[in-house]
Amino acid sequence: MEKFRTLFQHFQSSSESVMNGICLLLAAVTVKLYSSFDFNCPCLARYNALYGLGLLLTPPLALFLCGLLANRQSVVMVEEWRRPAGQRRKDPGVIRYMCSSVLQRALAAPLVWILLALLDGKCFVCAFSSSVDPEKFLDFANMTPSQVQLFLAKVPCKEDELVRDSPARKAVSRYLRCLSQAIGWSIALLLIVVAFLARCLRPCFDQTVFLQRRYWSNYVDLEQKLFDETCCEHARDFAHRCVLHFFASMQSEMRARGLRRDTAGGSPEPLEGPDGLDGDGSRKAHLRAVSSREQVDRLLSTWYSSKPPLDLVASPGLREGGLNHRAPTVAPGARLSQHTDV
Amino acid sequence: MDKFRMIFQFLQSNQESFMNGICGIMALASAQMYSAFDFNCPCLPGYNAAYSAGILLAPPLVLFLLGLVLNNNVSMLAEEWKRPPGRRAKDPAVLRYMFCSMAQRALIAPVVWVAVTLLDGKCFLCAFCTAVPVSVLGNGSLAPGLSPPELARLLARVPCPDIYDGDWLLARDVAVRYLRCISQALGWSFVLLTTLLAFVVRSVRPCFTQAAFLKSKYWSHYIDIERKLFDETCTEHAKAFAKVCIQQFFEAMNHDLELGHAHGALATAPAGSAAPGTADGAEEEREKLRGITDQGTMNRLLASWHMCKPPLRLGQEEPLMGNGWAGGGPRPPRKEVATYISRV
């Protein structure tokens, strides 16, 4: 398990590493899936092509969608795309960068499947055995066209009685597998050349813009994660207070009914109880005012509809009316940041 | 598992060690790929040579380019090549060193593939089966009776035992043994040649320009480590920025809601008492921000990193960005320089 923890920590170090890790995992799952899948060509004239091409193209589509699902950043990207501009303007370049990085990683597993299928050859042989030109093979000279078609349809099935131990079947199968492998290697070569050129030539175009977009896309991802964590913390404190509040109010209700003879507290108790039991002032800090369902809902909808501007020194108010009242509390904040400058 | 962690950390220590690790893995993967790959000679006269040449040459090219793509130094090399000189001169020797070290490592997996292919012999057999000297190995007297296309069609089936029908002309085993023998001889010669070349390059290099080589190696490692540290610092900064942003958002919400309450104990709850609790945490986060607190400044910093890298001279007080720095003064640059000193 140590091994996994080290690998896990390495991949957690940044959001890009996490995405790369997920990508590799999905590629490994694809390889395992392909090797354990039991290919079963129907060997019937019209169904062969359907089965072969279906198996070549449907699992990659499913794997592509899985790749998008497994990647948190796809959701973050869509949220960033659809949010109202509010106090923070949207940068289409950042959204495009996130989109392209998500798509690239999601395409890895489907391509692995397609390449494996082509290099293995079974799919291709099954799909195109009926489309082979019989003229190429001398063994079909003395067969009628319908016989030839029947024969060709059964080529993918080695154990079928009609084609068992037939040199013609082996010749056709070999020819198709060879073609399939050639196509597979050509696609692999093309992809790798494209990837290499993209990697080499990227710094020649707009490197500064690229650095900026990479930073801000990482920022958006981190901010979303931190916001979720802060909300979780808030929810925990909220629940804690709620439960303590409930117990304290039960206690005071019982006192009020006279079931206990001790001197009763009145209204202060429900408030003091939770406060006294808490003992951790800083945790309650963000619960002070946001302590009801409507307020939490309002906080969350404000986060979506009007994200704060990317400017920590001058933080404008969330509502116009609050601006004057907030001026005294903003000033210490601004002074704090200037202290750190100096 | 400590051993594993040590190895992992050692390999991660710099890009070159990491690439050595990747190189080894790719060489093993190359051999594994060859054994998993089902070689499938078409046994047709025109197609044999094309298929064999493809199998001998395309996968090595793919492996070579993959080795380059996986190497982060490729984009680093391109960046270093294309960046404006700014205040840091570019050294072509460093670029050459980086390119050579990348190419050398990327060549190992293709060499393994070619060596394994030749030593195995199937590829060579498939390519040259039509060129076998029938007169020497088989019934030479019967050969002239066949037309060349007919002979070619017959010999093309030598690699495929289940469809070969030319035993009367040439025993299949004889041809296979002959071609495999040549293939293995070529394979071993290739291995010997490459190892000899690598040995000569490695031993002879210190005789030429060793001092310049040491300098290039140092500065190439430096550029790699600097880039990694810059990325880590940016990530830390982004985290701190996000934390402070969210804290301010929650505080602003608090104030808004508190001011909205006309009555109630919550309205009288002193915000000041909450402030010290959160202020310590906020203070620490603001430290990490190193004075860069808005989007425009961060963008300028990132642009300046590429357009005008700082000079390789620590302890200077020149402003980083000249007139463009709205914050004024050398304070933030000095902070960054101090960080570098303490880290290195």
From TrEMBL, chain A:
InterPro entries the UniProt entry points to: CALHM
Recorded superkingdom: Eukaryota
Membrane topology: Multi-pass membrane protein
Claim: Transmembrane is one of the keywords in the record: yes
UniProt keyword list: Ion channel, Ion transport, Membrane, Transmembrane, Transmembrane helix, Transport
UniProt key word Transmembrane: yes
Gene Ontology MF term list: monoatomic cation channel activity; voltage-gated monoatomic ion channel activity
Location of the protein in the cell: Membrane
Chief location: membrane
GO CC annotations on file: basolateral plasma membrane
PANTHER family documented for this protein: CALCIUM HOMEOSTASIS MODULATOR PROTEIN, CALCIUM HOMEOSTASIS MODULATOR PROTEIN 3
This protein's name: Calcium homeostasis modulator 3
UniProtKB/TrEMBL annotation, chain B:
Location of the protein in the cell: Membrane
UniProt GO MF annotations: calcium-activated cation channel activity; identical protein binding; voltage-gated calcium channel activity
Gene Ontology terms describing biological process: ATP export; protein heterooligomerization; protein homooligomerization; regulation of monoatomic ion transmembrane transport; sensory perception of bitter taste; sensory perception of sweet taste; sensory perception of umami taste
TM annotation in the entry: 21-37, 49-72, 182-201
Domain of life of the native organism: Eukaryota
Main location: membrane
A GO cellular component annotation in the UniProt record: basolateral plasma membrane
Keywords: Ion channel, Ion transport, Membrane, Transmembrane, Transmembrane helix, Transport
Stored InterPro entries: CALHM
Membrane-topology annotation of the record: Multi-pass membrane protein
Entry similarity comment: Belongs to the CALHM family.
Protein name, entry field: Calcium homeostasis modulator 1
Protein's gene: CALHM1
